[in-house]
C-alpha cells in the first residue's frame, strides 16, 4: 500500500476517535475525600457529610486558602436524592471516585447498612476499595477536626490503616472494604470492622493544636471493633479480642504480648503465626504455630534454654486461653466469630472447639538477660 493511501486512511479514521470527550476539568469538580452518614432511628432521616478537597490549599501559592477540606452537610430521607441535594449548596459537580473512607455512625450501623451497600454498589462511579468504618463518636465531630501530620482526615485515616496492614502494627489486618461487606451479607459468620473514636467531645481546629502539643487529647483513635452480623451491628469487641478474631480467621500473622515469667515481665513478639483448622459436625480443632522473639526482658534470671521453654509455655497457655475466651464470648452473644456455621458445624454455640498452640523461640536479642548496674542485686 502506498504511503499516501495509508495517510488518507488515517485521516478518515480521526473523526471516529473519542478524543477527550469524557475529560473533566478539576475546577469544575467537588472531589470528595471522606464521606460519612448518620440515620435517625425514629424518623429515618439520613444526614450525609461530604468532605471536599480544597485544591488551592495544597499548592505553594502565596495567599492560598488555608482549609485543606470543606465539609458539606445535607439531610434527606433517601440516599438517591443526595446528589441532587448537593446542587443546592456546592458550586461544583459532586465527584466520588477519589473517596478514601466511608464512615457510618454507630446508630446507623445498628439499624443495618444494606441500603448504604446497595447505594454504593449501584453508583456508576463506585470504588469497591473504599474503606469502611463505624464511628463511636459523633461523625460531625470527627469530620470537623484537624488531623495531625495529614491535612485531610480521609488520607490520615487511610494512612493509619495502611501502615498497620504493612506490618507497622499488630492486630489490624487488611482494612474492611465495601466489597467485603457485600460478601458478609451472605455469610453467617460475624464480621469485625474498625471502630473509630475521637478522644475529645469537641472538634479540634488548627489553633487548638498550636496551643497544645499533646496529640492524644484531641485525635482519632482506633478502639476495638464493631461486630456486624449480616449487615447489622450487633455489638463491640475490644482491641485484644479484635486481634484474636483476625488471627484465628487467618487474616493476621503477628502479635505482641506481655507475659509474667521468672518474676518479671517479658514482652514477646510472635511472628509467622500459622493456623490450621479442622471442622466437623460436632466442633472444630485449631492448631496454631508461631515463632517467638523476646523484645523486652525484665526477669531476674538470665535467659537459658530452660527459661526459654518457660516463656514458650507461658505464651502457649496465654494464647489458648484468649482464643477460647473469644469463642465463648461469641457463643454467649450469638455471634459466630469463627464462621463455624459456614463450615457445617451444627449447634455451634455448644460445639466443642479446641485450641492447640505450639511456639518456638527464635531470637532473644543481643544479650542473655537484662542489663543491671553493679550496685543492684
What does this structure look like?
This protein is of the alpha/beta class and about 375 residues long. The protein folds into 2 domains: about 25-235, no CATH class; about 250-375, GMP Synthetase, Chain A, domain 3 (2-Layer Sandwich), CATH 3.30.300.210. It has helices spanning about 5-15, 80-85, 105-110, 115-120, 140-145, 155-170, 180-185, 205-210, 240-250, 305-335; strands spanning about 30-40, 45-55, 70-75, 95, 100-105, 130-135, 190-200, 220-230, 230-235, 255-260, 265-280, 285-295, 350-365. The strands form 2 sheets. Strands 1, 2, 3, 4, 5, 6, 7, 8 and 9 form a 9-stranded mixed beta sheet that branches. Strands 10-11-12-13 form a 4-stranded mixed beta sheet, with helices on one face. Mean pLDDT is about 80; it is low at about 370-375. Belongs to the GerABKC lipoprotein family.
Concise structural overview:
The protein is of the alpha/beta class and 377 residues long.
- Radius of gyration of CA atoms, rounded to a whole number: 26 Å
* Strand tally: 13
> Termini, distance in Å?
96 Å
Query: Could you state the oligomeric state of the chains shown?
Result: single chain
Largest sheet: 9 strands, mixed
- Percent strand: 25-35%
Protein name: Ger(X)C family germination protein
Membrane topology: Lipid-anchor
Pfam family, one: Spore_GerAC_N
Subcellular location: Membrane
Amino acid at each position: 500500500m502506498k504511503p499516501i493511501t495509508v495517510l488518507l486512511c488515517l485521516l478518515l479514521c480521526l473523526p471516529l476517535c473519542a478524543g477527550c470527550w469524557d475529560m473533566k476539568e478539576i475546577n469544575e469538580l467537588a472531589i470528595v475525600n471522606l464521606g460519612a452518614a448518620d440515620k435517625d432511628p425514629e424518623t429515618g432521616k439520613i444526614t450525609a457529610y461530604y468532605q471536599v478537597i480544597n485544591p488551592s490549599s495544597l499548592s505553594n501559592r502565596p495567599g492560598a486558602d488555608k482549609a485543606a477540606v470543606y465539609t458539606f452537610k445535607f439531610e434527606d430521607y433517601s440516599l438517591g436524592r443526595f446528589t441532587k441535594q448537593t446542587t443546592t449548596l456546592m458550586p461544583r459537580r459532586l465527584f466520588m471516585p477519589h473517596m478514601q473512607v466511608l464512615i457510618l455512625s454507630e446508630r446507623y450501623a445498628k439499624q443495618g447498612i444494606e441500603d448504604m451497600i446497595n447505594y454504593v454498589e449501584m453508583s456508576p462511579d463506585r470504588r469497591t476499595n473504599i474503606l469502611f468504618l463505624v464511628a463511636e463518636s459523633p461523625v460531625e465531630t470527627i469530620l470537623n477536626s484537624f488531623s495531625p501530620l495529614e491535612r485531610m482526615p480521609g488520607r490520615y485515616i487511610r494512612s493509619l490503616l495502611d501502615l498497620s496492614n504493612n506490618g507497622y502494627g499488630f492486630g489490624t489486618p487488611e482494612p474492611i472494604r465495601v466489597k467485603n461487606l457485600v460478601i458478609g451479607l451472605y455469610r453467617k459468620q460475624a464480621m469485625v470492622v474498625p471502630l473509630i473514636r475521637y478522644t475529645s467531645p469537641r472538634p479540634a481546629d488548627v489553633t487548638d493544636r498550636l496551643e497544645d502539643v499533646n496529640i492524644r487529647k484531641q485525635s482519632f483513635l482506633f478502639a476495638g471493633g464493631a461486630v456486624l452480623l449480616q449487615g447489622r451491628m450487633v455489638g463491640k469487641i475490644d482491641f485484644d479480642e479484635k486481634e484474636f478474631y483476625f488471627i484465628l480467621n487467618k487474616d493476621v500473622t503477628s502479635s505482641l504480648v506481655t507475659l509474667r515469667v521468672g518474676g518479671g515481665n517479658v514482652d514477646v513478639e510472635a511472628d509467622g503465626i500459622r493456623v490450621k483448622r479442622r471442622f466437623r459436625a460436632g466442633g472444630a480443632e485449631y492448631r496454631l504455630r508461631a515463632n517467638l522473639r523476646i523484645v523486652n526482658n525484665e526477669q531476674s534470671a538470665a535467659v537459658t534454654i530452660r527459661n526459654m521453654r518457660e516463656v514458650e509455655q507461658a505464651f502457649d497457655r496465654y494464647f489458648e486461653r484468649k482464643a477460647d475466651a473469644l469463642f465463648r464470648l461469641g457463643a454467649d452473644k450469638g455471634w459466630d466469630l469463627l464462621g463455624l456455621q459456614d463450615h457445617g458445624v451444627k449447634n455451634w454455640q455448644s460445639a466443642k472447639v479446641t485450641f492447640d498452640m505450639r511456639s518456638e523461640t527464635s531470637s532473644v536479642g543481643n544479650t542473655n538477660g537484662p542489663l543491671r548496674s553493679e550496685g543492684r542485686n
